[in-house]
Amino acid sequence: MLGLQQAVRNQFYLRHADELYGQNDNYDLMDSHVLPALIRKFHLAKLLSEGKFDDIVRDFRRFGNAPDFSSDSTYFDQKGCLLPTAYSLLVDHLSKFGIKLSSSCGLKSVSFLKRDIDNSLPTAYCPVLPVSNGVTVELWGTGEARREFMYSDDMADACVFLIEREDEAISSVLDPQTSFINIGTGEDITIGELSQKVAETVGYKGEIQWDATKPDGTSQKLLNVSRLHHLGWRHKTSLREGLRLTYQDVLSHSTR
Q1: Contact 164/9 with Cβ under 8 angstroms?
Q2: pTM for this structure?
Q3: Which domains does the chain have, with CATH numbers?
Q4: Are 1 and 18 in contact (CB under 8 A)?
């Protein structure tokens, strides 16, 4: 629970859905909101499956969580282009975040660059052999826990909507026992279903594995938003559309 409880006007409180997501997150694999981190994780897995190591490096440099490139001469040539020695480092580093290359695939398919017959293409533009059948995304738990996800723009819109209501309207939905108005979508989804939607949005076609030795956490987190609905507000951004917008944001930052 992010725990937002802000008193406004006639002493009612706002409490929002646990899982916010949207554009302009930091997309850190460790410290961002759950869904933006998951989107980036599947994006990196897709890049690995396509053998786009240069794009993986650009992603790390833009969003963080990069491996130690302190010995640049070991991993980059004088023009700053990737050397084959960098591939194993990147594959090993990605595995720390649950993005894994099958041991049966090994590095044979990604350790050598394909060049034109005349060997004239610079390293930065030499496509690496794709390894789409050997990449797995590993996620914690069983995938059965249910969570409510809310697009951040909808959260902001709901706050403005409530602040602009007349006191009488707000009072009509409160009772003496509780003065909370929950902001959420009133809809939840299993983490397993969510991961499939993220994979589809990103275009990742590899395997998803669940580590059931890790905890699921609370089985369900879903707010009762009947008071908000009674006042006339409902969320506008579907999960599918929110995922699309957020992934577009990731791509726009990655190309800068």
Answers
A1: no
A2: 0.82
A3: 7-254 (3.90.25.10)
A4: yes
